Amino acid sequence: MAEPYGVCERCGRDVHGHIRVVGTDLGDAFAVLLLGDPDRDWICCDLCNALLCHNCCSHPETGYCDTCYAKIFRRRRRRR
Ligand SMILES: [Zn+2]
Ligand SMILES: [Zn+2]
User: Which residues are found with C-beta within 5 Å of the ion, ligand 2?
Assistant: First the structure.
């Protein structure tokens, strides 16, 4: 059963899929892994924490919303 995780801030669509936190006991240390569900259709922007569905994000693989992506990867070359 896929219950909605939240709502896209831009289009208002329900988004699904969770990030699972998996802890592994290594003896002396404890490792924590974040595993995204393969059917996850949203991102939480690393910079502004915006929750956006993949339809509203041009670069979901980067983990940033479009606004922050533009800030980080400025491709505006206004020199001319
Ligand atoms: Zn959306
Ligand atoms: Zn952002």
Answer: 45, 47-48, 50, 65, 68
